[in-house]
Specification:
This protein has nine helices and no strands. By secondary structure, it is mostly helical.
């Protein structure tokens, strides 16, 4: 039998380093999403992970740098999940039916990305990220990409009305769609028992009705 050599010490060290860095990111996302950035001292993260504070400063220059990394990881994961959820959209159906398809799947991503979205909204509504400019830029970029993504869903849903009309509806209603999505997330946090799909269906109903009104007014 061929003898299997153990990994070299440097390889084991690198693996432990990558694992500890990921443990720190995961713990920071969990704790900061509940306590906020300002309310999460490094000592709380050290207790959560069981790692010494020196491990945090080995991977991240500062607490602000850690927040930036948490937000970057969360943003990548969130939009990767959105793209995966919306693969192979239906080619037929009314705008209302297509919007329900998109927004129900968007609701599923919301539920699975709860920690990231909670922290995102805390940073949007506060000045906690002022000392972490890279994290603040990530927050702004996520909001911008979210509006672009909402416009894409609306435009795709109304494609049967023609490209120019679909663009007009998407531009007019994407901010409303974002506001509805934010509100649904807050409601999901504060009004337990109602499935997020119900909020997403109501949002789809509203956007569809407004879109049809824009078409009728042309």
């Amino acid at each position: 039998m061929e003898k299997i050599e153990p990994p070299a010490p440097e390889t084991r060290t690198n693996r432990r380093g990558r694992r500890s860095r990921q443990e720190i990111l995961d713990a920071a996302a969990r704790v900061m999403s509940v306590r906020g950035y300002a309310g999460t001292p490094m000592s709380a993260l050290a207790k959560e992970t069981g790692l010494p504070k020196s491990a945090f400063y080995h991977h991240f220059e500062s607490k602000a740098g850690l927040l930036s990394a948490v937000m970057e990881q969360g943003a990548h994961g969130f939009f990767d999940a959105m793209r995966e959820a919306h693969r192979n959209p239906p080619e037929d159906g009314t705008p209302h039916e297509r919007l329900r398809w998109y927004l129900r799947r968007t609701g599923n991503v919301m539920e699975n990305g709860e920690e990231f979205l909670r922290l995102l909204l805390v940073l949007v509504m506060s000045r906690e990220a002022a000392e972490a400019p890279e994290a603040l830029q990530t927050v702004i970029a996520v909001r911008d990409e979210g509006r672009v993504y909402m416009a894409h869903m609306i435009r795709s849903s109304f494609q049967s009305a023609g490209e120019e009309t679909a663009d007009k509806i998407a531009e007019a209603l994407a901010p409303f769609g974002m506001a509805g999505y934010d509100g649904a997330f807050v409601a999901m946090q504060s009004e337990g028992g109602r499935p997020v799909s119900a909020w997403m269906d109501q949002l789809a109903d509203s956007i569809a009705a407004l879109g049809e009104a824009i078409i009728a007014a042309d």
